[in-house]
Amino acid sequence: MISLLLIILCSYLAGSFPTSIVVGKILKGIDIRQHGSGNAGATNVFRVLGPGPGVFVLLVDAFKGFAATFWISGLVVDPLPFGSGLVMIIAGLFAVLGHIWTVFAGFRGGKGVGTAAGMLAALFPRALLVCLLVFVLVLLITRIVSISSISAAVALPITLTIFRYVLDWSVESSLYLFSFFAAALILFTHRSNIQRLLNGTERKIGAKPAGKD
Known about the structure:
mainly alpha
């Protein structure tokens, strides 16, 4: 039980590292949450600080999820109550939760997409490739990052369902069930974006803020 608590704590703290906030402070001396969309994620960094910092934040955020799932899940000092697959999912999940509700920045973090992608890279790379393809295709069609992220999240349980029941590939039950929770969590963190999409006010890539020439 000590091992599981250690894994949960370390994964949460790793996910809590506020990459976008640190980058904003270092590069411009700003709190990224007070600019652009107000979100502490890679998309807002891309919007406010440019593509270089945005890509850097995305990679670090993804690494947080991968590191927790692939490495931190192996911090075993006593017998674990679950199998290694479920422990990896738990570690990755708490990294995502740490990113969304970071203890280092008043529990106001990002939306978890990048960190969840890093987690998925460690758990099931083939599913990640499908989700990335969905993200890119929707982004090319709509030029809206939020709907691309939502589409990729929804694609995860659909993809694993096809892998498991149509292609008869081996997909652990814990991972399959988690995919539905992960999609629901991403939808929850994008609830304000969904409202703007319904109102027709969600910004597209390259669009100028309302009221500006």
